[in-house]
Amino acid sequence: MLRPATLRPLQRAAQQPALRAARRTISSRGSSKLTQEFDLNRLNSQRRDYDRNRTAFLTAGAVAGVISFIYTAWKLKQAISEKNAKEGKSGAVKFDAQPNIPTEQFKTEAGELRKIIIHDEDGNEVVPTGNSTVPLFPRTIDVSLPLDKKEQSPLAASISDSAGTQYTLVGLGMRSVTFIGINVYLVGLYVATQDIARLQHYLVKNVNPVATTLIPSEKDTLRQRLLDPVEGEALWDAVLRDAKLRSVLRIAPVRDTDFHHLRDGFVRAIQARSSLDKPAYSDEAFGTAMKNFKVLFNRGQVPKKQEMLLCRNESGALAVTYDAGSSSKPQREVLGTVADPRLSHLLWLNYLAGSKVASEPARKNIVEGVMEFVERPVGTVATQVV
Questions:
Q1: Parallel, antiparallel, or unpaired for β 247-253 and 307-312?
Q2: How far is CA 165 from CA 237, 264, 333, in A?
Q3: Which of 32, 60, 236, 280 is at a distance of 20 to 30 A from 289, taking alpha carbons?
Q4: Which residues lie in Low complexity bias regions (predicted)?
């Protein structure tokens, strides 16, 4: 029988392999955990690098895309400008009947701007537009509308005939879209010749209540007011509301377009201005007027050079006409009318006043045309036109 002293070395020898196995297990678990933590840190680092590189790549691509778009648009605008310049220089080839059409719309006489007026091949007074596609606008137009049926005064009879009421050009300009300036149509403002005296009266009295005409310094004051976004809108708003003017916006496209495109532009302008005073334009009557206005443009193409007239009578009712004929055989057709004066009021302001107008060249040209009126005694312009 073995003694206890003999058994203790045997027990220690039996326990040593188990201890070594336990140490190896603990050591291997610690090593595996460290390895896993090292792998996760490395993967996180790789992910951050990937995200950073991806963001930098996408940003560089977006910047390159914007730069290439701007560069392409700039080259396109440059090409269009060069083409327009060449057409302007070679305009005499296109205008066989009028080889000497000036490109300027005003000339300076005695320190004042004067509208350039020439005669076409039929002897009619016309005004150069500076555009090769539609080079001329008539100085006066005769318009006959259902809105005009009323008893006429002697002066009205002298400037009205079977062709309709005579309207005199105030100013015109080009309507352009997009930041590269694509020309769409020329627009001119005409005022009934017999109503010019009322326009003179309102504008002159706004500057000098006791004057019948304005001197140069007073004209500068009026010019600044008309071009000011706030004062100009207030002044034109009062004229359109109180002066009872009959007026026409004559539109002549310089490129092929369609009625829907023109309608969308008009509607956006009206909605933008009506949104500034929602209580005044949120009723059912104005909504119906907008619907009726849109219906007038449910038509097809509008070729370049064709005439469209937006006509506003003394009460603010709107009539739209379109001439689908040729210059030798006009076929002016009334597309329809809208009685609510608020609609035409907003549409006219879109060309005349505010911080953003449909055509800045037209607004400035109209203001210069107004200066020609107010420098003459009130009531004398109509007799000079006749």
A1: antiparallel
A2: 24, 29, 16
A3: 236
A4: 7-20
